């Protein structure tokens, strides 16, 4: 049994999806329980330049024929039509669909859900909400036994990049936007991002997911960031806060006390200690408050070819597993784990931060640096300060190494300890995340 | 069709699971597609005091009989036996199992997986890895089409609480531990937490999940935080870093160049800008690096009755859905979304940060405060500074309100703008996360 996969569109994300399907086919087959066969890629112009080199014969202009022969259709064309027609056609004839098309989902989710129902097919769209960040599945499944009360998301990388740049550099909006455009973080026409329209479509999807409903885009209140000034950002900093463009969906009541759901996108002040305040640059994050789970946050890249392709492929493998499972007679077994080889701590790749108390005399630094070099370890920073702990004539030396093998780092420390000029190795802590 | 649920154990987490199953039965039935029936709770002493009031007749001491009549068994007894025997018995006869028992899973995951396979049942353990944080499903499913290269987790709330307290207050380890014990963040015997044993069991599970394998606990290198001093913490701060106890699992090579997996728990320096550095108090987080998705982080509460119960219930609903779906003939349809009522922006509950340029004369503050109060809005902070923008005789006034209905806040601003003493409302930004 083979799972036939049709790809519609081959832009930034589509070309990465094609690359993964072709390059990782053995690995994917093991996880799915059956091979995934990329039967073709429908594009308008098969001869256009692509980000990834792909065989010419895999391209077709006949999307309908491709859709009709597929078990799984991956729609990455974008826009309302013809994407919507292809998806509905696939679902009604029982092929499952993976899409990252937030505009289409925000406009037509109820009809597409109905088409999936009618065809007994699955419609998954992890890539549509916050790019690579797993959010659809955690909300739909992991939190299925809880009640979400509020969702707040940084779901547009362009505006977060601009606001973060204004916060860091004190620049005005126009300047930060121009820089973002120059660096490729904002489009030539930035309207959809800076006016909040992109975030609003994602807010509608988040609200639908979080509250087990379908929330229409037209009911999302939307304000962008164009009116935010350097003075607003400075005032926020002064108050211990930061300005973020948030997509917010929460349960509430109207003035008559009747329950409802409020969904809105607007610039928002957050205390600097809030987990969302630490989301920098073009990163995205979704913060969730649930009745029992309390506060949760999901953080990652919200856009980009490879990250978004990762989310698409997660959906493809999930559907593929279901298909393979059904074909095998409906067992719910997980794919079998494979053996692995544990590496001992000596083989860990890490870096060390050392504090040493040494004699305050000439030649000590050179002596220590010599031992470090002999073990093939390299030093990132070395700082010497006067030391109270070591007593008179002592200096405190702090060394941070580059990444090396633990065995070499440990041997280095052992040799340093033997040096007569070294009074004590007062601490050794490993470093990550540099 | 009813899904019969047996609960083993009724401690901190178990009593919350029982509460949710009993209180939320209608909501859960809608999500599962069939009612979940709590058939009983097996405990040693049915008359013991519980966190939650539960009907006496629901308790039993006969765990075997309870297991044998169940579709889903929730194991929250903890420890190796008899928990392991109950789980294996349930799985082999085809009942799916939800557990949060990390010690048992770290010791016996391969056998239990095999038992699930043999019985055609599911074994889910979202609660075992990082409490309420959805991590099992994102890694197993959302990232199923990607390759994880490294996982770093803050997976023990007690040690993170202690290290965070040392970072904030400059306290020594013993003092911070004593405070944590007094506040209920550390147990009377803190060994399993502070020596890293709890984190090591979770590290083995994370490694198994991330690398599609089974990684044995005995191969995890484990160091605790008892040797971390206030001086280490101060030196870290001085270098722009913070010390965290991390569980790390990554692909690597040994000195011969052969591939393997390194899993370790040790105190680790992280730059303050790293997303894991912002994880404060008893919170947990898991940071994942994947080939295509790049950097991801999952953040939330790693322990506690209700948060952990949320993770357990997510697994229960997921299994229940599969059962209900299979009983209905194998359709893969999602539960139907329900209608919801959108609230307009006027009904959003939010708070405002206002900047006003006002005449620098007596009575202005009282006049503005009076308008605010008339709209039923209350002020959290009000600050006056000299203003350059407003010209001579001007002051800049910054007001942050408490949470109120948007309509009242907007009306307040409109009235303030009409005041002769107000020269300009220079900015209005909403505030969240206070």
Automatic annotation (TrEMBL), chains A, B:
Cofactor(s) needed: a metal cation
Pathway annotation from the record: Amino-acid biosynthesis; L-methionine biosynthesis via de novo pathway; L-homoserine from L-aspartate: step 3/3; Amino-acid biosynthesis; L-threonine biosynthesis; L-threonine from L-aspartate: step 3/5
EC number(s) from the headed UniProt entry: 1.1.1.3
Reaction it catalyzes: L-homoserine + NADP(+) = L-aspartate 4-semialdehyde + NADPH + H(+); L-homoserine + NAD(+) = L-aspartate 4-semialdehyde + NADH + H(+)
Class of this enzyme: oxidoreductase
Gene3D superfamilies in alphabetical order: 3.30.70.260, Dihydrodipicolinate Reductase, domain 2 (3.30.360.10), NAD(P)-binding Rossmann-like Domain (3.40.50.720)
SUPFAM superfamilies (UniProt xref): ACT-like, Glyceraldehyde-3-phosphate dehydrogenase-like, C-terminal domain, NAD(P)-binding Rossmann-fold domains
Ranges of residues in domain ACT: 353-430
Keyword entries, A-Z: Amino-acid biosynthesis, Methionine biosynthesis, NADP, Oxidoreductase, Sodium, Threonine biosynthesis
Coiled coil spans: none
Pfam families: ACT, Homoserine_dh, NAD_binding_3
NCBIfam families, per the entry: PRK06349.1 (NF004976)
Similarity section: Belongs to the homoserine dehydrogenase family.
Record-linked PANTHER family: HOMOSERINE DEHYDROGENASE (PTHR43331)
Physiological role: Catalyzes the conversion of L-aspartate-beta-semialdehyde (L-Asa) to L-homoserine (L-Hse), the third step in the biosynthesis of threonine and methionine from aspartate.
Name of the protein in question: Homoserine dehydrogenase
Annotated organism of origin: Zhihengliuella alba
């Amino acid at each position: 049994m083979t799972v036939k996969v049709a790809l519609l569109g081959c832009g930034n994300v589509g070309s990465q999806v094609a690359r993964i399907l072709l390059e990782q086919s053995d690995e994917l087959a093991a996880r799915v329980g059956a091979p995934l066969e990329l039967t073709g890629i429908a594009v308008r112009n098969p001869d256009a330049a692509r980000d990834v080199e792909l065989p010419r014969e895999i391209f077709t202009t006949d999307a309908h024929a491709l859709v009709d022969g597929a078990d799984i259709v991956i729609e990455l064309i974008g826009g309302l039509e013809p994407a919507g027609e292809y998806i509905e056609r696939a679902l009604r004839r029982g092929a499952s669909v993976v899409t990252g098309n937030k505009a289409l989902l925000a406009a037509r989710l109820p009809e597409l859900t109905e088409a999936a129902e009618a065809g007994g097919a699955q419609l998954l769209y992890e890539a549509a909400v916050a790019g690579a960040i797993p959010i659809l599945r955690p909300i739909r499944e992991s939190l299925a036994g809880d009640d979400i009360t509020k969702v707040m998301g940084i779901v547009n990388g362009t505006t977060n990049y601009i606001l973060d740049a204004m916060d860091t550099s004190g620049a005005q909006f126009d300047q930060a936007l121009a820089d973002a455009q120059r660096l490729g973080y904002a489009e030539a026409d930035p309207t959809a991002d800076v006016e909040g329209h992109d975030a609003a479509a994602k807010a509608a999807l988040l609200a639908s997911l979080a509250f087990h409903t379908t929330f229409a885009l037209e009911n999302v209140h939307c304000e962008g960031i164009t009116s935010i000034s350097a003075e607003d950002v400075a005032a926020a900093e002064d108050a211990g806060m930061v300005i973020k463009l948030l997509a917010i969906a929460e349960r509430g009541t109207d003035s008559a006390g009747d329950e409802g759901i409020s969904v809105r996108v607007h610039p928002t002040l957050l205390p600097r200690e809030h987990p969302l305040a630490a989301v920098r640059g073009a990163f995205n994050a979704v913060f969730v408050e649930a009745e029992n789970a309390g506060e949760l946050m999901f953080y990652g890249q919200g856009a980009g070819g490879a990250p978004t392709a990762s989310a698409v492929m997660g959906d493809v493998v999930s559907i593929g597993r279901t298909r393979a499972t059904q074909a095998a007679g409906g067992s719910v077994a997980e794919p079998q784990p494979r053996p692995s080889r544990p590496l001992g701590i000596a083989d860990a790749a890490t870096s060390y931060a050392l504090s040493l108390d040494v004699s305050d005399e000439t030649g000590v630094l050179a002596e220590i640096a010599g031992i470090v070099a002999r073990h093939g370890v390299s030093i990132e920073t070395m700082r010497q300060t006067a030391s109270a702990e070591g007593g008179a004539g002592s200096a405190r030396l702090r060394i941070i190494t580059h990444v090396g093998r633990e065995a070499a780092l440990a041997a280095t420390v052992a040799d340093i300890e033997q040096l007569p000029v070294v009074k004590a190795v007062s601490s050794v802590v490993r470093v990550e995340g540099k």
